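Deliverable D5.2: sample structural annotation.
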Amino acid sequence: MTLKKAIFKLKYFGGKKRVRNFATIFCQNLYKSKSAPVLEMGNSDSAIKQLLDEMSPITLEEMTGIKLMNRLDTKYVASKAQLVQLLKLVQDKYYVQETLERRIIPYLTTYYDTDNHYMYMMHHNGKARRMKVRVRTYVASDLTFLEVKNKNNHARTKKKRIEVPSQDDFRKTEGAHELVQRKTGLDLDKLNAVVRNQFDRVTLVNKGKTERLTIDFNIGFHNFETNHDHGTDELVIIELKRDGNVFSPVCNLLRDIHVHPTGFSKCCIGMALTDPSLKQNNFKPKLRNLEKINGRKFIDHEL
C-alpha cells in the first residue's frame, strides 16, 4: 500500500488526528536527521528546476527599471509541492531572472543585532516600525553588501545598501558606520552577528515588468550565539515586491493553490529556531506552521 492510499484510509476511517500521528511517525522513521528532506524532496527540486528551465529568461540589465527599493512587500509561506503548482501556472506570465547562466541563485546573509536583541524584539512585539541590519552575499556574482532595511507603519519597506569587501571585512568600509547610524540610530560597533542563513532564490518578473517575485527555499540557519544549526526542509517563502497596491497577476494564482499572505521574517524565525532562550510567544503559530508544512515535528524545543 502506498503512503498516499494509507493516509486516505486513515483520514476516512480514523480522522485527522490519526493522519497527523501516522505522518509524523512515518517521517521520523524514514528520516533521522532534522534537516533531512521530507518525502521525495529530490523529485520536487528536479521539478522546480525543470519548470524554471522552460521559462523565458530576463537578465539583471533588463531588470534595471524595477529595482523597487521603496516598495510594498507581501509574503507568502508555501511548500515545495505548492511551488511546483505555481510555476506551472506562471509559465507564460513571468520571466525568470538568469545570472551567469543560473536561474537558482545561492544567497548567504548574516544578521546583526544588539546584545539584548533589540531588533528581534521590535519584530516579536509587533512594532509597525522596525529595522534589520545585515550583510548579504550574492554567491553567484561574488558581491557582498551591507544592507539596512526599514519598514514603516504603512507596511512600506525601504532598503539602503553599500558594497563591502566580504562578510567578515565590512566595518572599515567608508560610509558603513554612517549608514547604520543614520538609518537605525545604532552604533555599528555595538552590533553582533546573531544568525546567518543560506538559501536558494529564484526571481520572477511579470511580463509587464511592474513587479518582482522572489522565491526562497532550501533555507538553513546557523546561530552564532548558540552555535546551533537548523534546516527548514519543504518550506518555501514567496515575496511579492511592488510599488503600492498595483494589480498583480500572481495574487489570484496563489489563492487558487491555497497560499495566502502571511508575515514571515527569515531572520527572526531563524533566531527562534536556533535559540530557545529567546522570547518567541508571538512566533509560535509560524513555528507550528513550519512543522505542518513538513508533516512532522522537527523543532528541538517545546513551543
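Annotation notes: The chain has two domains: 1-30, 41-294. The chain is about 30% helix and 30% strand.
The annotation will be released with the project's public dataset once the embargo ends.
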